[in-house]
Amino acid sequence: MAELVKWSWVENNLDDIQQASIEHLQLVGAAMGIAIAVSIPIAILVRRRRIPYIAVNTVSGALYTIPSLAMFAFLLSWFGIGFEPAVIALAVYCLQLIIRNTVVGLRGVSGPVQEAARGMGLTRRQRLLKVELPLALPAIFAGIRLAVVSTVGIATIAVYIGAGGLGVLIVNDGIQRGLFVTPILVGAVIATVMALVFDFLLVLLERALTPWQRARAGTA
Amino acid sequence: MAGEPTRAPVEGPARHRAGVLELRDVTKRYSRDGRAAVDHLSLTVPAGEVCVLIGPSGCGKTTALKMINRLIEPSEGEILIDGHSVRERNPSKLRREIGYVIQQVGLLPHLTVSANVATVPRLLGWEKERTRVRVRELLELVGLDPDEFSGRYPAQLSGGQQQRVGLARALAGDPPVMLMDEPFSAVDPITRERLQNDFLRLHRAVAKTVVFVTHDIDEAVKMGDRIALMREGHLVQYATPAELLAQPADDFVADFVGADRALKSLSLTRVEEITLIPAPLVHVGEPALDARARIDRGEMVPITDHVLVVTEDDRPLDWLPVGRLDDLEQIPPSAPGGAEPVIDQVTTLRDALSALFEANAAYGPVVDDQGRCVGLIGAPEISAGFRRAAGVSTVEVPPSTPATLDAGTGGGGG
Fold it and tell me: How confident is the model over A149-188, as pLDDT tens digits?
């Protein structure tokens, strides 16, 4: 059996591999940033309104089910090729996960906690910022973690609309050159590691932001 | 100071202000033509007094309470604190000046105990140092060691401890009025009694004007300076607990108060108000001969042939038969618990009697707020004290009465 990974290719293409990885990080970072910035305010707006929540949930759910190649092709016809349409497509996929989880988290704040906060004289805004959002953090993080992992994967397809990223290795260097295995493996391994590292960093961040969660686990 | 509303910012735990609370024809209708949940309710709570709102479920007591801090807006009528209508205030600012304690406590789970207590001072914009000092004071006031509890999260506290933090939190901004919605209903009976006693003691230190909702008539009689009995949105009777028990306004009140009104009257008197038996105290480490000598000289009278072993600072530990004094060199240390029931002196005669029966003891040591034994109490003392308090001419308790309780078990400490 032939050598699975041609290390010589890896050595000769280190610059390209690095470039692809950085582009991939940029794609995922930008998409996540936009998705979070859009989803959380939407979730806040619809958290107590039944019909708007159902509407938002239905639309974001429908978007989530569009096959990614079709989504990229569709955005290509509007925005042309490049980084921006890819980021938009990736962000759209995240909406559902983050909005849903955020709403669940915000709605999860118990009645007595809400009543006590109101009774102590916290304004609506103070209750949102100082009570509801902090208490929703674990759920928000759960949504973001799911979204990041899937985005790192889907972003490999962005190469089809010329957005670069690890798809360059997998598609251009691998698939289109008669299934040359080495770049496909390199791209896949980097994507996997990237997803795991993102997930781990988010876990660390969540732990730092929600110290009360550990206190609870400690006494359970 | 209870009679005078004070607004001067005095530092220290003694500082407190209380306001006169007045409800004038307050009515709440949820629909235009529907029955009023609260119907023309008028009552005045003098500054520093505890007014208990009580009645069957659906009588409007909680609605009435929540209209005071505008969690519910009245349809008609006025609510005044120190003569100022609550309607003229911004609701959030108003609520920062009204302590609020609810049955489910509602501590903010993501904040530490000290941050929870500091909530209102922070909203009021107090300086950090002032808030920090205030939080420590309040935790001490509600019986929680600040060093131990400040950094804990609510999930790390028992139900009773959570409600103590809830109380401290409600008091933090030094509000002239406090609203308490069934604050002690969600804890077990022993914890409830302790919380009640500690609240009564605390209320002496910081005499707030309190509106206290409960469905438990015994709690109402114990906690209230006045009781407002409500039915279907109407005020049926507003009276002191003694009046309510002695002169129920109508059959409904009499029914609600229950047939055992005489027994309930036991809740009107506190243990500290009656004459106790001097406790025969022997201290751990004291030479047994000395104790014997004190008995022989008549300085100490054993009770059912027992003396009470206490710590150096008079905390009750266990009973010791007098006969053993002759076999011992000195009083041996023993674990606390053998002298149950240990009775808090602010508790009511009813709770004390109940504790005695429950422990099957003839006598129990009575302790002050530091846990020091200040005397003994038994059924005869409760009976005599009650008759005196109720204005009945003191009748000698027949000597057979103590025999109805098993002196041996109680005295021997099991």
Answer: 999 999 999 898 888 899 998 988 888 888 888 999 999 9
Does residue B153 sit at the A interface (CB-CB below 8 Å)? yes
SS3 A65: helix
ipTM of the complex as predicted: 0.86
Alpha-carbon span B349 to B387, nearest angstrom: 11
**How many other C-beta atoms lie within 10 A of the C-beta of residue B230?**
25
List A69's β-bridge partners, or say none: none
Distance separating alpha carbons of residues B402 and B58, to the nearest angstrom: 44
Closest Cα in chain B, distance from residue A105 (Å): 13
Model-level pTM?
Answer: 0.81
| SS3 track for A107-152 | HCCCHHHHHHHHHCCCCHHHHHHHHHHHHHHHHHHHHHHHHHHHHH
pLDDT digits (tens, 9 = 90+) for B276-323: 888 898 888 888 888 888 888 888 888 888 899 999 899 999 888 888
- Considering only the beta carbons, identify the residue of A112, A121, A126 that sits closest to B105: A112
Count of CB pairs separated by less than 8 Å, A with B = 78
B172 interface with A at CB cutoff 8 Å? no
Min Cα separation B111/chain A (Å): 7
Contacts 24+ apart (CB under 8 A), B6-15: B7/B176, B12/B137, B13/B137, B13/B138, B13/B140, B13/B141, B13/B205, B13/B206, B14/B205, B14/B206, B15/B174
A115/B96 touch (CB, cutoff 8 Å), yes or no: no
> Of B11, B58, B10, whose CA–CA distance to B37 is shortest?
B58
**Contact A30/B at CB under 8 A:** no
